[in-house]
């Protein structure tokens, strides 16, 4: 299985290199132990890609972390680096360049004529990657010659790339030391993780062409224990590389970015907005989601923060071996929108989702939620449908769509709010499936259905993610783009007061009202994308397309307004309406 899939729950995070000053003194708010001091001294000499306004400090609870020494504004790129190693997932190998991770463009990507497994934009990208691919190419050819038709996963190929680069840089080079300082959890692994770690270690040894782990000594890993630690470091510190729409593309490792600790209420995100220079790609950028004060720790989320606390904690313990004590986990609000049901009396307040045997009350009017069993049943079948539809999403999208279409009304009628789990996750999947199934050119009913689903997803995400979060920003952009699609048969304009009142309340709206809403939504999307994907990147690739959509819509609305103005003038001149 692809590592991208194994780590699908993990959120992205990245940045752009501001090559400069060496790490400065340790000014921790936590009092460092003797060991911490020693560690800090070591880190001072490396991590040259960390800019002078950031600082590595250590805490007794989370180990090393990254702190801001001065204030950072929302949407600021605070760290930018090219990962130490990266590999495309198997599914993306023939559609993306293995050097810059860009999507293939006409007249098409060029395939490596030796291994036939990887593709490049052109000879420039191929040459840039050659120092690593020359080893990888031999390994891939050896595997193909053995009769094995499957290409090793992105995790194995990324580990292989680290090994070859490690060999080239030597055991004492900064590059290798940054890799060796990544946190390993090999000593306290849970039995459930053994299988993944053992599978990775055995597959890596085979990929490198060895028959036993001891042969990895030439890479500076002298024993099986060293190899196990190496694999553990990789699992704890891997980032999923994504495209500008957050579609997973592969696995990567970046020690400076991996120093950043986790919070379920993060102040920064890691994104890959795509720079303009292929040699710099895939470029990881850490972007601040809100103002970060001097002496505040930079924190990103390792897991999907739209999930309820219990699921987030499970993912964090399974992969990262810690219990999160962030404010959202340690002192959750009375009603977390991720686990909420509308007030049974309809006062507009919310109740916490019920737990067996415990009464749930509306936080606003205190009404007791009576239909506990209905809610619990809906959540259970909703989760089952979500798991099934997610698994079928690519292999049988029609079946997946049938599942989401059938289940969403059950969750809605049980009273789950748009932000609650699993309603939000199902709505998001439903939206993706509807958009993928839109006919070309789109017909009215499927287009309207997709608009309604995207609006529901927006309502849900707005309740749990902060302004500018990349996931939320992209969802707003998606809704705006759907609203801006030319309607095949816009509803006729309202003529009477009653029709006008009805038209105002109708969703999705039609005609000029729809275009105006599209424009407002896209303007909001642009503002959010500028935060989540960095103002300096103009909101990344999606931000740039949204800007073009806004210009087009403004022009279209201008034509519409002008047309109405001219029609009114003609009517006045003809005496059909009074002056
Ligand atoms: C990607 S590393 C982060 C850097 C790490 N602290 C270090 O010293 O290298 C992830 C590991 O850091 C620790 N960690 C990250 N965030 C934490 C948090 N909020 N609370 C406790 N431990 C955390 C966990 O041990 C986790 O497996």
Automatic annotation (TrEMBL):
<keyword id="KW-0862">Zinc</keyword>
<feature type="domain" description="SET">
    <location>
        <begin position="52"/>
        <end position="303"/>
    </location>
</feature>
<dbReference type="InterPro" id="IPR050869">
    <property type="entry name" value="H3K4_H4K5_MeTrfase"/>
</dbReference>
<keyword id="KW-0863">Zinc-finger</keyword>
<dbReference type="Pfam" id="PF01753">
    <property type="entry name" value="zf-MYND"/>
</dbReference>
<feature type="domain" description="MYND-type">
    <location>
        <begin position="97"/>
        <end position="137"/>
    </location>
</feature>
<dbReference type="Pfam" id="PF00856">
    <property type="entry name" value="SET"/>
</dbReference>
<dbReference type="InterPro" id="IPR046341">
    <property type="entry name" value="SET_dom_sf"/>
</dbReference>
<dbReference type="GO" id="GO:0005634">
    <property type="term" value="C:nucleus"/>
</dbReference>
<keyword id="KW-0479">Metal-binding</keyword>
<dbReference type="GO" id="GO:0008270">
    <property type="term" value="F:zinc ion binding"/>
</dbReference>
<dbReference type="InterPro" id="IPR002893">
    <property type="entry name" value="Znf_MYND"/>
</dbReference>
<dbReference type="InterPro" id="IPR001214">
    <property type="entry name" value="SET_dom"/>
</dbReference>
<feature type="region of interest" description="Disordered">
    <location>
        <begin position="486"/>
        <end position="507"/>
    </location>
</feature>
<protein>
    <recommendedName>
        <fullName>SET domain-containing protein</fullName>
    </recommendedName>
</protein>
